[in-house]
Amino acid sequence: MIRVEAVSKHFGGVKAVDNATLSIEKGSITGLIGPNGAGKTTMFNIIAGNIVPTMGKIYLGDEDITGLQPHELFDKGLLRTFQIAHEFPTLTVLENLMMVPGQQAGEKLMDAWFKPSLVREQEAEIRAKAADVVEFLGLTHVIQELAGNLSGGQKKLLELGRTMMVDAKVVLLDEVGAGVNRTLLNTIGDAIVRLNKERGYTFCMIEHDMDFITRMCDPVIVMAEGTVLAEGTAEEVKTNEAVIESYLGRGLKNKPEVAQS
Hints:
Elements: E1 2-11, E2 14-24, E3 29-33, H1 40-47, E4 55-60, E5 63-64, H2 70-75, E6 78-80, H3 93-98, H4 109-114, H5 116-137, H6 152-163, E7 170-174, H7 182-199, E8 202-206, H8 210-216, E9 220-224, E10 227-232, H9 234-238, H10 241-248
Helix pairs in contact: 6-7
């Protein structure tokens, strides 16, 4: 689905991503983990079109999407969420979702003047779809609440809901669990799994919660110092000595022996 081939991104003399190659397979929930400064967010920004790589190529299927802008990738079904949710705080939950679909007839002055029935019909369809998304995510009780008043976890659910308002193919989730309580994190996890299994969404997520990664992701890709260090199941990477050394701990070979009592 997504292929990253020998991608590098340099900021002056700093190599944020350094000749990294990885794949996000269609139909997978892929985890992307690593220590702070490993290049994970830069990699997401490159894939999502927020920054252009210094070298290398990005492919969506067989199409070279290197350097395309986020709005162009949005139209191709590649979307991302952010560690800090980007809601419209003064709009309701329902209105936030209704804002997502592009090319709405009501956005065109001529249609609003001369095709009011088309505008009303399309708005009714979008409203119905938004209501279905709200129900899917279990947010019916806050459907008319201003998005700015939601909890952190509810805002993350709303961000996930925005991806459901268009024909999403690949969704990049940036620390979906950050600042979210365990109950809501489980709800978010359930929604991601349902979207993956029932609607064919492909996900890639940056996350530091290894319990969540273990529950959700296969495969897991580990980055360190701007490059790919390891890839495998969650259990495989957790027992990989190089991963333990760079990310999860000091490494088995450096752990002091426990004195026998």
